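call fold(seq) -> tokens
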Amino acid sequence: MNGGRQPVRVDVFSDVACPWCFVGFRNLQRARADWDGPPLDIRWRAFQLAPENPPRGIPFAELVETKFGGPERYARMTAHLVAVGAEAGIPFALDRVTISPNTRLAHAVTAAARQSGHAEAVVGALFAGYFCEGVDITDPDALVELLRTHAADPDPAGLVAAALAGELDASVDADLAIGAEIGVQAVPVVIADGSRGIVGAQPPEALRQLVLGEFGAG
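ret:
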């Protein structure tokens, strides 16, 4: 169906603690439904919203108070997000989130899964675990169980062990450096062929147009 066309490289900068990145992830999956364009070579690249957080994160309730002005205001602020998520098939359960994480470990696990060819499944599991199931994604044991439950990779314990051993540090650092070099400040960011990109949780049609080089045409 693709007629031997060359694949389009798609770099996705996101953070698994970013709800709009979850929406963007699902929209990219929806954009590929019934896709008859060129093959896509998707690379999930690391970005950290809160690299200053300690390795095990901070209580999310603390962040709600200090950054969002308390639970009631936070609920009002996220009502639109929850509605948009529902349209994308995401059952956000933000009341189950207990940790504002440092996501470096999660990114290292994703980098390990990139080597085994299961990065997208792992990213999806991390998003769902954090935002829908309240999983503490800074907890290595919880990560292993999450990946096993979602069948995201045949060797979840191996992925987490490799990440903990620092074997993927260089890969995560490379992603962060690339993002800094090209000026990524807000995520998600989707870049096609290294030359054209869009920021934010864009709808499926906009993502299709980006890949085909038609975004903004007309």
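The chain has one domain: 8-211.
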